Structure prediction request, 166 residues.
Amino acid sequence: MTNHVHLLLTPQNDEAISNLMRYLGGLYARHFNYSYSRSGSLFEGRFKSSLVQDDVYLLACLRYIELNPVRAGMVADPGDYRWSSYMAHGLGKNIAMWTPHRFYLSLGENTHQRVKIYRGLINESLGVNVIAKIRHCANSGLVLGTENFKSQFEKITGGSVETGRS
Prediction:
């Protein structure tokens, strides 16, 4: 997107996403500042994140992200957006630094089957309520999942799914 980036990540440890975002932010800021002869930070505030219950919401989030340039009117087809993982999910192309999630892999026995099934999912519209829920949770730092999942999260972390804090 022109003013933000969506990443759907499965971290290997508790600090992985924060470390990645710090690294990417610093790397991009150095490049941008050097290219435009400037200094200082580029981003406002901390990145936004949401814990996603993968077996229920992962593919919905993936579809939300990959259809975002279409909803924004930037492209007519998600395959036309240069920076999208749809190239891998929907077209079967190998992309550097991309690892398919196990739920994507479970869509079919081989790449051809997965691509065909995923294209079918992309062609199904995401409901307005699903889009609103994904946006709300991402922007508020809330857990995106079933009530049972949220309850388990609260028990394990001692945090609250209502405040987005743990």
